[in-house]
């Protein structure tokens, strides 16, 4: 079957004109369709082009931000790139300044301008610009950290640059937040000469750009924190030695500027605080750290009190227990002395650490800057020399550096080296001062006293080297040597005594020695090693070391007594004892210091202290030993008061072991 | 040259001289006549069509181009109204060519070779420096006249220097009455 097509069916009937008209309509439709297709394609191409341009912009800025270390460079680059991309007139960067709730945006000199000469009035009006939170653009970014467009910024109430913006025909504005993490770190602002809104999607891209630039700020912050970490003592938060060394020479120069008449300039205080080692050893390092923090707080308070006086002040922790306080003042001698006084006063009150009272002993070495010093290290070196001197002088002293001290310091250095050698070689010897019954002079025991035998055979008395040994920590090995040697002597004396009753040996224990956690174990090991009878060993603690940490002392004294060792409280009456503490610590013997005896003479004797101590010792069941008996008057008076035991030059000086044994009436065993 | 310019010229010619004229111009110029707005076509093809139009209309090329430019503006407005809406007056419109309109044109038509104008401003006058190798300064004049007409402003357009006269650049001068 054949079907005729419509055109064929109507071809004969249709006239040519109608056909033309139809073709024209057809053509018009085709043309319209072509235009519609072109419109769709144009829109698609435009969207593609815009997307590509934005991606390129974002990628350029991200690459730059990756390489960039200076946030200011990143802001400048982004301001230029974004302004160029938008085709706008003006781009400008602002940075966040201020702390906490007082943060604000401050204008920078990072500008991007399409036509520089047209926008000077606006740049001028933006100089020293401060934008507070809550303001119109850009301050509003604090409250809402998203890019924002305002069609006519000069018309907004509160826009302080409105007049200049109008003069420059600026209307539309965009502000872009630069976020470092969750914090607004900076902002970019852009202005154009019309009120047309940006293309859809632009503000979102600008947010991403702000985040990319923010990464540069974040990296810078981390770098700053790292640097801060290397320049800050982590325990106290004070600047450390590295910080002081970094800034030191600049501080010296600044300080030298203060010197108008030769009286002024930099003074450096080297502050040593003793007591830290004890806390570390007994209460642990966490307690030691909190002690350091408390010390730092006290020093900070001293500096804060200085703040309204003229001059600059710098506080640092040099390491260990050494702090440095540096000032520059027109009258530096007076200022430094006042400051040293203030430091001693601040360190005076007893601190409580982990529930324990801690006494601090502070020494201060001072040095003044001199023109010939090449740098801070020389000033520091001399203050340190003065500190050693101050420490040797005793707690609470401040000493100003003098050139002679350097020679002394050198001498001390040599002495220290010789002492170390002596410890290795065992170049010490013990002498024994008899402790006697006051009524008949019978020897009951000895106090062992150390001497240092130098190469030339000379014996050096303890007052010549024990101070140095304490400062350097060498007191520990010396103390251990003394203890071991005394125990060996106990064994020898015991052997010599035969059937006679044996005599005891009293050994002085230094505070540092006793404060070591392993002291009891050391005593036990030496007793086992030497075979000495613990009952013949008497350990003498000074009042000061007994009171430093009463709870621990009580525990250790109890442990030592449980081993059979007798405990003696030495130099009683010279330190600051609390009778309450004393009652809690079970000493066997109390030794009255020689100062209460030595100066008693026939015409003006005052035995009240000795009487009181005797009454106390009796009440507590302790034996009393009186030191420093120098004549018969004293011996007789003390005997009358009921004192049974004493020692002193009236009876005997310290004697070599053989002489001491003879004095005690001990006869050497055959072949011993 | 972008196809959209051919399309505009076709529309203007068809409106002014009838649809047949465009067919005749294509035949005379031996041009393909297949132009989509997005395509790019040889500049010479447009110049040939203009040459053919001069022959058929007995108009001189400058006058013919000026006429085409003037008549093209209402059609441009119909096609790209936002180019005009962003500017409140003829001066703003002209000044936005480099910074806004031509960048927008490049977004629509990748690779479009838009001319760059150097502006010199005075109170009631504006001079555009133009030095495109296409030397279509008279078409530009027509566009400027058409733009003034769009905003209902009376502007006299003239050239104080012209590349066709051997000058290195054309100076198209606009004077507001």
Span of the ends, CA to CA of chain B: 34 Å
**Could you say how many structural domains of chain B there are in total?**
2
Question: What would you give as the CATH superfamily of the largest domain in chain B?
Answer: H-NOX domain
Query: Approximately what portion of the residues of chain B adopt beta-strand conformation?
Result: 5-15%
Name the pair of protein chains with the most residues at their interface, and give those residue counts: A-B, 13 and 13 residues
Tally of extended strands of chain A? 22
Total domain modules of chain A: 3
What kind of assembly state do the chains in view correspond to?
Answer: heterodimer
Q: What is the top-level CATH class of the largest domain in chain B? A: Alpha Beta
Radius of gyration of chain B using CA atoms only: 16 Å
Beta-strand share of residues of chain A: 15-25%
Helix tally of chain B? Answer: 7
Q: How would a crystallographer describe the biggest sheet of chain B?
A: 4 strands, antiparallel
Low-pLDDT segments, ≥5 res of chain A:
none
Which class of the largest domain in chain A in CATH terms?
A: Alpha Beta
Strand order of the largest sheet of chain B: 1-2-4-3
């Amino acid at each position: 079957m054949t079907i005729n097509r419509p055109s064929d069916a109507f071809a004969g009937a249709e006239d040519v004109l109608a056909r033309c008209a139809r073709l024209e309509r057809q053509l018009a439709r085709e043309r319209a369709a072509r235009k519609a297709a072109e419109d769709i394609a144009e829109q698609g191409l435009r969207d593609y082009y815009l997307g590509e341009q934005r991606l390129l912009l974002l990628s350029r800025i991200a690459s730059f931000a990756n390489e960039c270390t200076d946030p200011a460079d990143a802001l400048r680059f982004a301001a230029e790139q974004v302004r160029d991309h938008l085709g706008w007139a003006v781009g400008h960067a602002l940075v966040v300044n201020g702390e906490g709730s007082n943060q604000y945006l401050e204008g920078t000199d990072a500008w991007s301008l399409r036509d520089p000469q047209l926008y000077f009035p606006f740049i001028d009006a933006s100089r020293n610009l401060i934008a507070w939170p809550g303001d119109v653009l850009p301050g509003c970014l604090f409250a809402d950290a998203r890019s924002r467009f305002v069609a006519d910024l000069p018309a907004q109430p509160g826009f302080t640059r409105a007049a200049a913006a109008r003069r420059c025909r600026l209307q539309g504005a965009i502000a872009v937040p630069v976020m470092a993490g969750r914090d607004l770190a900076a902002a970019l602002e852009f202005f154009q000469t019309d009120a047309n809104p940006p293309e859809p999607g632009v503000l979102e891209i600008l947010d991403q750009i702000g985040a990319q630039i923010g990464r540069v700020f974040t990296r810078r912050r981390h770098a700053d924190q790292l640097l801060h970490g290397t320049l800050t003592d982590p325990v106290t938060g004070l600047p450390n030695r590295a910080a002081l060394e970094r800034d030191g020479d600049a501080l010296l120069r600044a300080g030298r500027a203060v010197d108008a008449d030769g009286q002024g300039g930099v003074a450096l205080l080297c502050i040593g605080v003793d007591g830290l080692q004890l806390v570390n050893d007994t209460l642990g390092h966490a307690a030691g750290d909190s002690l350091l923090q408390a010390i730092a707080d006290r020093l900070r308070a001293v500096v804060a009190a200085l703040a309204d006086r003229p001059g600059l002040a710098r506080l640092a922790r040099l390491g260990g227990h050494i702090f440095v306080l540096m000032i520059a003042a027109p009258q530096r001698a007076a200022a430094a002395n006042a400051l040293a006084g203030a430091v001693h006063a601040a360190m005076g009150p007893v601190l409580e650490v982990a529930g324990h009272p801690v006494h601090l002993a502070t020494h201060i070495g001072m040095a003044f800057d001199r023109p010939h010093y090449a740098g801070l290290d020389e000033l520091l070196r001399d203050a340190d020399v003065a500190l050693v001197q101050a420490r040797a002088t005793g707690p609470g002293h401040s000493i100003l550096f003098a050139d002679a001290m350097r020679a002394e310091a050198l001498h001390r250095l040599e002495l220290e080296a010789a002492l170390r050698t002596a410890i290795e070689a065992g170049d010490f010897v013990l002498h024994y001062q008899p402790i006697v019954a006051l009524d008949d002079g019978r020897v009951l025991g000895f106090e062992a006293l150390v001497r240092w035998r130098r190469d030339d055979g000379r014996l050096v008395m303890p007052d010549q080297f024990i101070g140095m040994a304490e400062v350097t920590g060498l007191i520990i090995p010396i103390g251990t040597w003394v203890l071991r040697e005394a125990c060996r002597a106990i064994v020898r004396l015991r052997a010599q005594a035969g059937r006679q009753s044996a005599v005891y040996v009293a050994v002085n224990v230094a505070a540092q020695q006793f404060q070591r956690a392993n002291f009891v174990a050391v005593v036990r090991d030496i007793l086992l090693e030497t075979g000495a009878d613990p009952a013949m060993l008497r350990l003498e603690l000074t009042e000061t070391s007994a009171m430093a940490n009463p709870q621990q002392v009580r525990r250790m004294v109890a442990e030592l007594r449980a081993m059979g060792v007798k405990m003696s409280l030495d130099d009683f009456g010279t330190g600051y004892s609390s009778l309450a503490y004393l009652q809690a610590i079970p000493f066997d013997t109390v030794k009255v210091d020689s100062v209460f005896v030595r100066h008693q003479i026939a015409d003006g004797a005052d035995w009240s202290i000795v009487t009181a101590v005797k009454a106390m010792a009796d009440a507590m069941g302790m034996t009393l030993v009186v030191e420093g008996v120098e004549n018969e008057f004293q011996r007789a008076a003390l005997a009358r008061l009921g004192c049974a035991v004493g020692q002193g030059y009236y009876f005997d000086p310290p004697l070599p072991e053989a002489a001491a044994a003879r004095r005690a009436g001990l006869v050497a065993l055959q072949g011993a | 040259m972008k196809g959209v310019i051919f399309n505009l010229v076709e529309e203007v010619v068809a409106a002014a001289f009838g649809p047949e004229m465009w067919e005749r111009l294509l035949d005379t110029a031996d041009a393909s006549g297949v132009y989509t707005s997005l395509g790019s076509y040889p500049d010479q093809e447009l110049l040939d069509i203009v040459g053919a139009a001069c022959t058929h209309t007995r108009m001189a090329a400058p006058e013919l181009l000026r006429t085409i430019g003037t008549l093209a503006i209402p059609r441009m407005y119909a096609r790209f109204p936002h180019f005009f809406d962003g500017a409140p007056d003829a001066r703003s419109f002209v000044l936005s060519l480099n910074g806004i309109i031509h960048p927008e044109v490049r977004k629509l038509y990748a690779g479009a070779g838009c001319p760059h104008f150097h502006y010199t401003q005075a109170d009631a006058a504006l001079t555009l420096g133009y030095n495109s190798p296409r030397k279509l300064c008279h078409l530009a004049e027509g566009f400027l006249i058409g733009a003034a007409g769009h905003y209902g402003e009376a502007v006299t357009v003239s050239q104080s220097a012209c590349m066709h006269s051997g000058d290195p650049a054309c100076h198209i001068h606009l004077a507001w009455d």
